[in-house]
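Aim 2 progress update. The chain analyzed this quarter is reproduced below.
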Amino acid sequence: MSRGPDVSTGLHGALAVGSRLESYEIANILGVGGFGITYKGYDHDLRRDVAIKEYLPNGLAQRTADGTTVVPRSDNDRKHYEYGLKQFLEEARILAKFKERSIVHVNRFIEANGTAYLVMDYEDGESLAEQLKRSGVLTEAEARAILVPILEGLRVVHAKGVLHRDIKPGNIFLRKDGPPVLLDFGAARQALGEQTRTLTGIVTPGYGPFEQYGSLGRQGPWTDLYALGATMYHCLTGRAPVEAPDRITVLQEGAPDPLKPVVEAAAGRCSRELLTVVDWMLAPHAKDRPHSAEDVLARLTRRKGTSPEPRVASAFPKTQVMSGGTTDVAAERPSAPPPTKEQARAFEACRATAEQGEAAAQYELAMMHAYGRGTARDESAALEWLRKAAAQGHGAAQGKLGLMLFRGIGTAKDEVVAAEWLGKAAERGDIVAQFNLGMMYAHGLGVQQDLAQALKWYQLAAERGHAGAQTNLQVLAAQPRRRSRWPWISALVVLCLLALMIARRLWWRA
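Predicted structure tokens:
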């Protein structure tokens, strides 16, 4: 369905041009994600272009030497791969039932090559992410032309109990003729994320709400509305919002929300009515957000609604949230609210599983300690459980451990060891670790300064939509390479010696 810049075939383990799936022929690659590849294809029976999405989670599966067959990377990955494949096909069945123009429509699916393929309508256009790269920001009219149709589509799918869970500019396709369409509902991605925390990319930084960062967060329509609000924030300000966990952490410390309200960031460019609705959708806590697409549509179309007035965050001074400063003075931190009985029970159950050695439970327990969910906040305990999970190869734990060591949270700051753990997580595909590792190489923090390595890790994170990596990549790539002065100094010394020798010879002749 989505059409992006063509990517050369042969990359990413993709099917070769000319490969056949029944009557469909692969023409080229449209996009590559952590959980699959989307191709442009041609239907020889109906003689029309189609879009074909292949299930290929890069953390679990790989293409064999024959160039077509997909297999799990290991026996341990098999059950997760097969479970995700089942959910991928279930996604096709669900999406096939919706006829709304703003929701991607699946015509059929094919099981072949050890995996499965969704066949969708193909239309000309581009993603919202591509448009934002060109224009930077949108006008109010342009933003509303995207927001309202997507909300109308979400109203229908939410009524059927279906959530998208990954709304972002890259998943909104702008047709050349017709309303925008929401792509990639990601049922397989979410299912795999719930089953194993070793997979990364479950939450897109900046667009996912806080409840998506842990298995205990209750998700619902408000989850998609936060992501859609974050997308509108990007459209109106030119940048993605601050990540949700960072917002929650800062707020729990009693400091102002680090996300500048869009009513201030886009003041004078758009109506206050639209801006307050976007800020309402972006409330850090789910209880403060609209709970249905209908609530938001009622505000936007000035109909009478039953939801409360949007809460707009207060002004705040510009601060650097991602600092490396220490935060080891527990007395200066306000305590988190006491846990509910349900949260306390969940904490005890998670601890029991973690003590049995399960890495995913150890990681989840670390997050409970870090954010004070179900227990008192204890950064040292969080660090201890992260070490255990990271030692077992848990990618998310390795990334979080690296960040805590880099910032000196719960322990003394150690940039060298932080770089080692971030490197392990980055190699496993953790997008946040890739971004931070790029930053460390760019500035020589914990590693030898290396522009090539910085560009490599920024590029990997940027390709998967990390806004910070995209920005830093552009800045780093634009910097002029410094030329060494030594060749010039050496040449000058040689010339001086030659001049001296010539002068001495002339003097002796005289």
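DSSP finds 18 helices and eleven strands in the chain. The first strand starts at residue 20 and ends at 21. These observations will guide the mutagenesis experiments scheduled for the next reporting period.
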